[in-house]
Recover the amino acids of this structure.
């Protein structure tokens, strides 16, 4: 057994004052922020970014020596969840937890430019879909070169960016990089694997936050809406829909929290971490289907309108569950790990022992 499995889990309680401050910033922002209509491309609000920068939130997990705030992934998860709850679309995760972390880990300098990560799939001219590529000031290109990887911090003007969006209008741009014309810094395979784990867990955290809000909005709706002389919440069919959605959301949250604790508690080195992240993504992916269906069913026609806030969460959950690996991909990872463990080791795999 890997000795890192025995590492004690760090405390996961986020400072209540920090959580309240984060929630307050996003709550104030949503009161005046414009709402993009379905199909419209979202551009991140630079004024909000500067406010978050002044509060030390845009590089929340970066080391203090490199200009970050020195916080943990637990605080980062709270920041991401708060942004989801308030419908704020901004590249916090891509900048801090992926691009910033990668540059800092390999020892490259980090300035105040907003960044995202492009993971090129092959040598030569490479094409890949990159979150927020057309909106940021720098793109961190990670590309395979023979039997290793190289990292290059490039200006978007030096690559070809074709605009694209996901289901909720967040930029998911096609980036073409002429890798023959750039040089980079060597990156070990383990660091690349860790980057992929971090990216996958980020989306699980965001999906869970969106599902929880969709369930909360549905509970508020059925408690206040009256049909045939009594609240919708009194009808057994409605209760079943709500309870099923809440149960799926809770399962996804439990699996994601377990993966997060394993990752942070072992420094992202646990031999069971890949299985825990795959489980979290699988649970979150399937929960998105149940919660979306049930939430819209209890809302009826009003839940499909642009003016209603429900779609802010359901469409987001459906968009994010397919990024950094599809639901089918993560299902296959869970199944493969279970088969490889066998009957005698399956419980140890699940429990992380």
């Amino acid at each position: 057994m890997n000795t890192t499995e025995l590492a004690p889990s760090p405390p996961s309680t986020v400072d209540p004052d920090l959580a309240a401050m984060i929630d307050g910033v996003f709550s104030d922002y949503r009161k005046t922020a414009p709402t993009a209509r379905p199909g419209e491309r979202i551009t991140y609000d630079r004024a909000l970014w500067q406010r978050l920068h002044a509060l030390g939130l845009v590089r929340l997990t970066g080391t203090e020596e490199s200009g970050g705030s020195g916080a943990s992934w637990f605080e980062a998860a709270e920041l991401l969840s708060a942004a989801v709850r308030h419908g704020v679309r901004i590249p916090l995760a891509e900048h801090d937890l992926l691009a910033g972390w990668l540059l800092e880990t390999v020892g490259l300098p980090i300035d105040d430019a907003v960044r995202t990560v492009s993971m090129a799939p092959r040598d030569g001219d490479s094409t890949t879909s990159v979150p927020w590529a057309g909106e940021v000031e720098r793109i961190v290109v990670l590309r395979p070169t023979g039997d290793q990887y190289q990292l290059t911090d490039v200006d978007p003007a030096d690559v070809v960016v074709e605009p694209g969006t996901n289901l909720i209008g967040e930029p998911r741009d096609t980036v073409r990089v002429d890798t023959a014309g750039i040089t980079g810094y060597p990156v070990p395979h383990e660091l690349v694997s860790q980057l992929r784990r971090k990216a996958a867990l980020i989306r699980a955290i965001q999906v869970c936050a969106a599902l929880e809000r969709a369930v909360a909005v549905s509970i508020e709706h059925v408690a206040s809406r009256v049909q045939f002389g009594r609240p919708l919440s009194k009808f057994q069919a409605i209760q079943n829909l709500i309870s099923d959605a809440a149960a799926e959301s809770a399962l996804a949250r439990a699996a994601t929290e377990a993966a997060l604790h394993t990752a942070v508690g072992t420094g992202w080195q646990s031999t069971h971490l890949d299985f825990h992240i795959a489980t979290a993504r699988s649970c979150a992916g399937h929960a998105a289907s149940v919660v979306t269906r049930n939430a819209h069913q209890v809302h009826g026609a009003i839940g499909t309108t642009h003016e209603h806030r429900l779609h802010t969460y359901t469409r987001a959950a459906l968009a994010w569950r397919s990024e950094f690996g599809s639901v089918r991909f993560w299902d296959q990872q869970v199944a493969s790990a279970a088969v490889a463990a066998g009957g005698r080791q399956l419980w140890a795999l699940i429990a992380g022992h």
